[in-house]
Design brief:
alpha/beta; TIM Barrel; 2 domains; two-stranded parallel sheet; 7 strands; 57% helix
Length: 274
């Protein structure tokens, strides 16, 4: 089958991929419900592929190319088509850093990212933000995403509702005083989240897909290998900028994956498909 024949099946596969990414990032459903949804999506994709495969050989090659792309554009719009085509050429991934800013190592990380023209996402602790406001300003000035990681790095599921809200709101207040804007994204410490807080506080929780447990080791090579061997399209990589080994590993990860064709984006770009 000619490459043009894959416009529609690839489109559906990409849409499924982005849909699953969104589900993993924000919506917490039972494994059974998610599995049913995925089975339905896969079945629909297989039906589309089968129908296309049967009829495509009878169509003139030029018509195949034109009509396949036109149908896909009608279904998903030109924006989704551009997203699909770009992702086929340059898979995207997001580097994220928790527990900063750190007076010792965050500046070193920012220097390395600037030298490589890479944008990442920082999920910051309020008490450290107050100690290092200049680093936070630099993050914003250099195009990185600044997110909420609570004020004291607490498990908000173990707090009374009012205390949990205070942890997020106090961190947001600190950021607003420094940057003049509110935080839109947050990462809950330990990856545990109270869904009802989404209705009360206007933030989007962001989890991760790759965790090399960098805080458990100072072995840079080990951290790098764990990430680059697992990395795939739309992955969100969790690291910590409060460890020298993690900062060194992060810059090596960037170098390795860039050489493999990866494009690094902030988590909002990954979620919104920008």
């Amino acid at each position: 089958m000619a490459p043009e024949a894959f416009y529609l099946p690839v489109l559906f596969l990409r849409i499924l991929s982005y849909t699953e990414q969104s589900l993993n990032l924000k919506i917490k459903e039972s494994p059974g419900t998610l599995m049913k949804k995925r089975k339905v999506c896969v079945l629909l994709i297989l039906i589309v592929v089968f129908v296309l495969a049967v009829g495509w050989k009878r169509t003139d090659p030029e018509v195949r190319h034109t009509s396949g792309k036109a149908i896909a554009e009608n279904i998903a719009g030109q924006g989704m088509i551009r997203l699909v085509e770009q992702s086929m050429e340059h898979p995207k991934a997001a580097l994220t850093f928790d527990d900063g800013p750190d007076a010792r190592y965050t500046g070193v990380l920012l220097d390395g990212l600037r030298a490589r023209n890479i944008k990442v996402s920082f999920f910051l602790l309020g008490e450290k933000v107050e100690q290092n406001p200049d680093l936070v300003r630099r993050m914003q000035e250099e195009g990185h995403l600044v997110g909420n990681h609570t004020y004291h790095h607490v498990d908000i599921t173990k707090l009374p509702d009012e205390k949990a809200r205070e942890e997020l709101k106090e961190m947001d207040r600190v950021i607003y005083e420094i940057l003049g804007e509110h935080v839109e994204y947050m990462r809950p410490p330990f990856g545990v989240w109270q869904e009802k807080l989404e209705q009360e506080i206007d933030v989007l929780p962001v989890m991760w897909t790759i965790d090399p447990l960098d805080w458990t080791t100072k072995n840079v090579e080990e951290i790098v290998n764990k990430v680059v061997t697992q990395a795939g399209e739309n992955d969100i990589i969790l690291l910590h900028d409060c460890y020298e080994s993690s900062v060194d590993a992060a810059l090596q990860i960037v170098d390795v994956l860039k050489a493999e064709g990866y494009e690094f984006v902030t988590v909002d770009q990954l979620i919104l498909g920008c």
